[in-house]
Amino acid sequence: MCIEQRAAGTYNGAQMTGEGYQAIVNGLLARKGLVYTCLQVKNQIGVLKNTHSFWRYMQAHTGLGRKPDGSIDADSEFWKTNTEWSPPANEDLLDQLFRGYTVDGSTSFVPGDDYGENLEQEEEEEFQATPTSSTT
């Protein structure tokens, strides 16, 4: 239902309109007979987004190999040590919903950092004294 709302333009992967939340609430009631509030739906979307963000981070930063299907090649001990659950079963749907809107660390930067590009150009700055008053 969230993917339907994204296609409808009420959700952009980062924020959903009130109309989008209400459509999901109505859809859950109609399709599943479940009664949720808009806040509960919002919180669940947050959980899904965090799950997707964690999985994307793991894909980019574990240093582990990959299986032929693209999943992380790790034994069950790794998952027990690093997580309380296994990789998400609905990874393709989470990608459709959140791709481009979650932080995985692969494109992060620190504002003002030149990442070592100007190491040779660094010069010692001249000390400039603070102006003082000439009156006593």
Order of secondary-structure elements: HHHHH
Number of strands: 0
Uncertain segments are: none
- C-alpha-based Rg, rounded: 24 Å
**What separation lies between the terminal Cα atoms?**
75 Å
The coarse overall form would be flat
Helix tally? 5
**Number of structural units classed as domains:** 1
Rounded mean pLDDT is 70
**What structural class do helix, strand and pairing data support?**
mainly alpha
Estimate percent helicity: 40-55%
What portion of residues belong to β-strands? under 5%
Major sheet: none
Biased composition (Acidic residues): 114-127
Protein name: Myb/SANT-like domain-containing protein
Region (Disordered): 108-136
Summarize the structure in words.
The chain is mainly α. It has helices at 2-8, 18-32, 38-61, 76-82, 91-98. The longest helix is centred in the middle third of the chain and has 24 residues, at 38-61. The radius of gyration is 24 Å and the shape is flat. It comes from Panicum miliaceum. Residues 114-127 have a biased composition (Acidic residues). This is Myb/SANT-like domain-containing protein.
Task: Briefly summarize what is shown.
The chain is an all-alpha fold and 136 residues long.
Secondary structure layout plus pairing:
Elements: H1 2-8, H2 18-32, H3 38-61, H4 76-82, H5 91-98
Helix pairs in contact: 2-3, 3-5
Region (Disordered): 108-136
Organism: Panicum miliaceum
Biased composition (Acidic residues): 114-127
Features:
136 residues, single chain
